[in-house]
């Protein structure tokens, strides 16, 4: 389980320097934006869930110039960075809130975009249900998150030292797809790729994770100071992964997209939008 309060504080502290090290996040955001090139969808309202410093928010606003774009993040300093990034004539609308409890009305959004954020949610099924709740019929959800192979080198190296969790848990790709179906989404598509960053030494990786605010915030984590001896033992274990003079840090990136159905069924009752009913009478 993720300690949400600790995660929020961690990202709040990271806001000022986040963009300096968000290489992978920037790359996955761009790949998601490129996927939108192949989708015929003209949203009027866009929600960027886990917007961070708002780089993707600004690009969504530039792509869909007539749309209202909302940046949502649970760390207020991240949204303050996003406000500074937006052009003077078109600052993004910012909401400080949690993806698991969105402060938005039902069927109020046409496109939900979420890059590298859903792994900070404790209940993926409930989160997808919440995202579907705010999507209009025929609305699109597009997201990326991380799979269980992420940082497996770091996880393995810590396991040689102690039995405490040092890397946050991540769902399998098939679990992500099953959660989309269970939530009620239509036409889900999920795929995965592996991206490897390399470092000269482990402390470089650890500094990047800390600067990102993405260090271990699981509730079962060891909350005391990590002794120098344990750190050195972990560094030594990590050396088993060294190739060509560099240490790898693997990320399993899971991409997903799905549509809100035109008709929604809950507890055996099918809901049809009034607009669809009117179209049927024409």
From TrEMBL:
Protein name: Malonyl-[acyl-carrier protein] O-methyltransferase
GO biological process: biotin biosynthetic process; methylation
Residue ranges annotated for the Methyltransferase type domain, each copy included: 47-143
Biological or metabolic pathway of the protein: Cofactor biosynthesis; biotin biosynthesis
Annotated family: Belongs to the methyltransferase superfamily.
Gene3D superfamilies on file: Vaccinia Virus protein VP39
Function of the protein: Converts the free carboxyl group of a malonyl-thioester to its methyl ester by transfer of a methyl group from S-adenosyl-L-methionine (SAM). It allows to synthesize pimeloyl-ACP via the fatty acid synthetic pathway.
InterPro entries per record: BioC, Malonyl-ACP_OMT, Methyltransf_11, SAM-dependent_MTases_sf
Entry's transmembrane regions: none
Source superkingdom: Bacteria
Keyword Methyltransferase attached: yes
Database matches in HAMAP family: BioC
Catalytic activity: malonyl-[ACP] + S-adenosyl-L-methionine = malonyl-[ACP] methyl ester + S-adenosyl-L-homocysteine
Enzyme class: transferase
Keywords, comma-separated and alphabetical: Biotin biosynthesis, Methyltransferase, S-adenosyl-L-methionine, Transferase
Pfam families linked: Methyltransf_11 (PF08241)
EC number of this enzyme: 2.1.1.197
Gene Ontology terms for molecular function: carboxyl-O-methyltransferase activity; malonyl-CoA methyltransferase activity; S-adenosylmethionine-dependent methyltransferase activity
NCBIfam families registered for this protein in UniProt: BioC (TIGR02072)
């Amino acid at each position: 389980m993720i300690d949400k309060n600790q995660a929020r504080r961690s990202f709040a502290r990271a806001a000022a320097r986040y963009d300096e090290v968000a290489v992978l996040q920037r790359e996955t955001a761009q790949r998601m934006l490129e996927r939108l090139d192949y989708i015929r969808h003209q949203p009027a309202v866009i929600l960027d869930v886990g917007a961070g410093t708002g780089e993707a928010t600004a690009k969504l606003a530039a792509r869909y110039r007539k749309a209202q774009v909302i940046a949502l993040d649970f760390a207020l300093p991240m949204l303050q960075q996003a406000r500074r990034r937006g052009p003077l004539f078109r600052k993004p609308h910012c909401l400080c809130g949690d993806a698991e409890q969105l402060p938005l009305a039902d069927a109020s959004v046409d496109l939900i975009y979420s890059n590298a954020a859903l792994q900070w949610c404790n209940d993926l099924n409930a989160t997808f249900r919440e995202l579907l709740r705010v999507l209009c019929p025929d609305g699109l959800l597009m997201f990326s998150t991380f799979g269980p192979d992420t940082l497996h080198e770091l996880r393995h190296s810590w396991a040689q030292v102690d039995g405490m969790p040092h890397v946050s848990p991540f769902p399998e790709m098939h679990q992500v797809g099953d959660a989309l179906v269970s939530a009620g989404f239509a036409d889900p598509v999920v795929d995965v790729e592996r991206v490897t960053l390399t470092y000269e030494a482990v402390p470089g990786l650890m500094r990047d994770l800390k600067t990102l605010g993405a260090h271990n915030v699981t509730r079962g984590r060891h909350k005391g100071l990590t002794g120098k001896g344990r750190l050195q033992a972990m560094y030594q274990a990590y050396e088993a992964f060294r190739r060509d003079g560099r240490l790898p840090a693997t990320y399993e990136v899971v991409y997903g997209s799905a549509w809100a159905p035109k008709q929604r069924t809950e507890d055996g009752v099918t809901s049809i939008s009034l607009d669809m009913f009117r179209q049927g009478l024409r």
